[in-house]
Amino acid sequence: MKLLKQRTIKFLFGGGVAAAVNLLLIFILIEWLGFQTPMLRNVANIIAIELSLILSFFIYRIWVWPGGVWSINSVLLKQLPLYHLSAGTAVLLRVMIVFPILDKLGVDYGINTIIGVLLSAVINYLISDRLVFKNRETELQIPEGLESSQHSDQHNLKFQLTPNRQKITLFSVVIPAYNEEGSIAKTIESLSKTLNDANISYEILVVNDNSRDRTLEILQNICAYNRSVRYINNYYPNGFGFAVRCGIENFAGDAVAVVMADSSDSPEDLVSYYYKLQEGYECVFGSRFIKGGKIIDYPAHKLLINRLANLFVKVLFGINYNDTTNAFKAYRREVIEGIFPLISHHFNLTVEMPLKAIIRGYSYTTIPISWRNRQTGISKLKIKEMGSRYLFITLYLFLEKILSRGDYVRQEKKLLVPNNK
To answer: What is the pLDDT of residue 34?
Structure first.
């Protein structure tokens, strides 16, 4: 994982150097060498692109992915052509798919361009990593005679992340709700039944985000007969992020999960979260896009944007997690305290919370979950409005990761203790 993080940072830096050289070459060809006609300017652009591509190839080949085969035939006849294919594919996807889709959704062209450049870099990275430079590492060979014992140790040795981690005695569920009269009762009922059946001590805290329908009335009726449910009116301005922040400032449990009010999240997955927290993990993140995960009735355009956005986050931060934008996650109380202050006002809080937990050193595990599109009501997530906010919080946290020098990483050391059971 550390190697992957270093490689990602080097890749971004190398790409920046190549882009700067590209601009410099265009300037030299046009301003100094007199490539002034339209045809010559196009020639200058082609020359600059090609030379900067070759430069970036050798930067990556020497610095980012060292090792591998350096024969003339391999470099000139295989690796360079594959790298051109990689870079060309990234550009085509940006020009033919990403830009038109975001433009159709009304995303500002400046933000659209930034997102396109970043996604192109992500795509180029993945293709380069898995296709162009895939022979860069040599498999570690185990000396003859030690092979069986080595394999035995790998299979039998288990580790506890935090052997003395406090047990969860009360599990809190925070539900932000804005105009959810059609689904909030069903959501609470299914969560309560599932948690009761699993004999889990819990509280459900619903944050009424100044709803204008019957949501508040329904909550009052539920709280009158279900003592495990309470509600609070959001004291911040309206917004998903503000509502979640209000909830996680007022929950009573040893751990908390954020659950959507529209019944899109599975109560059975919430029980799985609880047991993973009991194992000692500080965070539990669900993914709808790993083996065992499931999505039902996900709008195609939102799914495409979701996968591109999560791919960008995954590569930028060098993590294996691929569903960062999903709100449905669980955290121990010490994690919530450790990631404050939170600054997101809207749905970008779903990215801020897990990324802060990861870069600040909290342990986490990922499990497959299922998700179903809401059956009633209207989705509050507006892609057109959220693009720049997601990008802002992602880059904000990336700067913390690379520039803070660990100032915000908690100092507690996780013990790795052999489990001989």
So the answer is: 85
- For 292, other C-beta atoms within 10 Å of its C-beta total 10
Q: How many domains does the chain have?
A: 2
Residue 251: both structure tokens together: 């929950």
The amino acid present at 336, given as its one-letter code, is I
Q: Quickly list DSSP for 162-174.
A: -TTPPP-SSEEEE
Confidence (pLDDT) at 377: 57
Longest dimension (CA), the chain: 82
Average pLDDT on 347-375 reads 93
CA separation (Å) from 374 to 258, 260, 287, 296, 299?
16, 10, 18, 10, 11
Does residue 409 lie within any of the structural domains?
no
Residue 21: predicted pLDDT = 84
Residue ranges making up the domain that contains 300: 166-403
102: its two tokens: 């975001």
Strands (E), 134-201: 158-160, 171-177
DSSP 408: T
Instruction: Give the whole-number percent of the chain exceeding pLDDT 90.
Output: 44
Single out the residue of 202, 184, 205 nearest to residue 193, CA to CA: 202
**272 and 281 in contact (C-beta within 8 Å)?**
no
Looking at residue 190, its amino acid is: S
Q: 188 and 127, same structural domain?
A: no
Q: Is residue 418 part of a domain?
A: no
Closest to 233 (Cα-Cα) out of 176, 192, 304? 176
If one counts every other C-beta atom within 10 angstroms of the C-beta of residue 220, the result is 11
**Edge-to-edge strand order for the sheet containing 202-208?**
229-233, 202-208, 171-177, 255-258, 329-332, 283-287, 364-368
Q: Can you tell me whether residue 376 is helix, strand or coil? A: coil
Distances (CA, A) of 392 to 133, 346, 382, 404: 31, 12, 16, 17
Give the CA-trace dihedral at 182, 187, 193, 194, to 10 degrees: 150
Any residues with CB less than 8 A from the CB of 214 and at least 6 apart, and which? 181
Whether residue 102 is found in the same domain as residue 242: no
The pLDDT tens digits for 22-76 are 788 888 888 888 888 878 877 887 888 788 888 888 888 788 887 667 777 777 8
Q: Could you tell me if 395 and 352 are in contact, meaning their C-beta atoms sit under 8 angstroms apart?
A: no
CA distance 136 to 141: 16
